User: Fold this.
Amino acid sequence: MSVSSRLAALRDQIRHHEERYYVYDAPEIADAEFDALVRELRALEAEHPDLVTPDSPTQRVGGRPAEGFPTVEHLQPMLSLDNAYNEAELRAFDDRVRRGLDTDSAVTYVAELKIDGLSIALTYEDHVLVRAATRGDGTRGEDVTANVRTIRSIPLRLRDGPSARTEVRGEVYLSRSAFARMNEEQEEAGAPLFANPRNAAAGTLRNLDPAHVARRGLRMWAYHVVVEGAGIDRHHDVLTALGAWGLPVEPHWQVCTGIDEVVAFCNQWRDRRHDLPFETDGVVVKVDARAERERLGATSKFPRWAAAFKFPAQQATTTLRDIALQVGRTGAVTPVAVLEPVLLAGSTIGMATLHNADEVARKDVRIGDRVLIEKGGDVIPKIVQVIDPDRAGRGKPWRMPETCPSCGSHLGRPEGEVVWRCENTSCPARLRRSIEHFASRRAMDIEGLGEAIVDVLISEGLVRTVADLYALSGSDLGALQVAPRAAKSERAGPRRLGKVGTNLARQIERSKQVDLWRVIHALGIRHVGERAGQVLAQAFGSMDRLESATAAELESTHEIGPVLAASVRAWFDEPHNAALVRRLAEAGVNMTSRLEPRHGAGPLAGRTFVLTGTLPSMTRDEAKAAIERLGGKVSGSVSRKTTYLVAGDEPGSKLERARELGVTVLDEPALRRLIIEE
Assistant:
């Protein structure tokens, strides 16, 4: 088989498996097998860069745009939809449609779930994705092509469809789990939480760093297509065609004959929507026949042939009993609303987030107030507003206490941050959250180490750092007296863990063998989540190598920015943290990575660098390590095979030789940009 044939076959295989995984959630091969296909493709493309195509799966992550996003014009205007908030308004929409069509017969509609995300327009030419733009003002949107190419549910090449210029409309969204994970990361970093998945998706898509966008887990549902000089006669055939072309289409749409079937569909999904893995805030109702749509036309703002039925807001009113403080594992102290329990969206709500002290002051929330609450994106309960804030006899304005509610230490607010922090690393609340995080499923995966057991371990003085977990024996844990979380009677008292403790000891022992990326994630370094742990483990290979890495080496690592790099360096510079790592290693915890290094198959594979002169802030060794971690090769002499000469001060004869041969010359800032972009 020729190289070009093998490349084509690999690309087709990878596209197929991406679709099975990201569109249908039905993978056919293991992750390791998929990764092997991608590595083979990268290696072949590195050997034959002239055969790399724009639609190759390796080209998903683009470079960082130099400034903001330019605007581009849509093939046809992207109009907004008129809203219907109840059944009467939905039926009034149907009346207008039938009058416009001059018919008393039932109109055929297509009802689709309204995705709570960000509208997007994808332009394909000869089946290849060439541009992606936000809705913008409906006529022009922001060009976010580099970011959209990172969304794996969006094909870079359609497997079928018209060859003419085609604009696919869809909705970019975050799943409930991805949104929850984002807010966990925000909370750990002491940053404001996202209000809902829609805002989070919009903010992510407009981020100037495609690598950052790739980590967030955006997805898309396609719902419309505009083809130059052509069209499909019925909308339900459009949805079928989009799926056949390889685009993800939300599967719960339904053809409805008459408005009664539309109303039944809306009523059905008003409750069922909570079972979906993503947010939907209504139903979009569209006339099915294209000919009827053309007869109905549009106003300056809305098409007359479509409407959005909005589900009732998931809100309730209750009383604010108290404002408690929650201490996180990084020391972040956040206010939490303690509520009179109230039923909301199928569950009883007794707590709600207040984000931070500034937010409490902005909303003027006081103990004893009647408040309106809702589930932010149907995920996180939050206080929307105070009811009757002008009434007499309200409580005093709430102020952040000066001391930690757990250990009594002074609370400080770092300059430039909205969050207050307890700086006492021995704070019991911080320790408790640290242990819970350390043992969590995506960290050390110690099954059975729950809140009640952690509380006893801390109160008995058995665990003062996470390293102490590895000194516990099965008999130690079996002898623990743990109170049941829900006693069947007032006389029910603490019980010995017994066999449960023995099993827990086995889980702790088993956790010593997890991969290095889990250990890095488990340490609780600020800004270091699961993905960053994987990147660092893959790049450095061992904890010793990571601990000795300079800030410049960290920052030059693929996907690691300056804030995260500084946070990692600062964490290891703290003597207590360095001692903790030593104790974990002495206890037998694995400190090496089993992830395959990026060498030879990274984004710089196939490129040869030569270093000359003195760089302003990097040593030659640091620059070489950064290049090699991304798969590049560093040579000692300039030749026709040299891709880049990196020149610092006093470069000497190598610079002259590079200019003679037409080799691209980079200074240190250009090298850093190349490393970050790749």
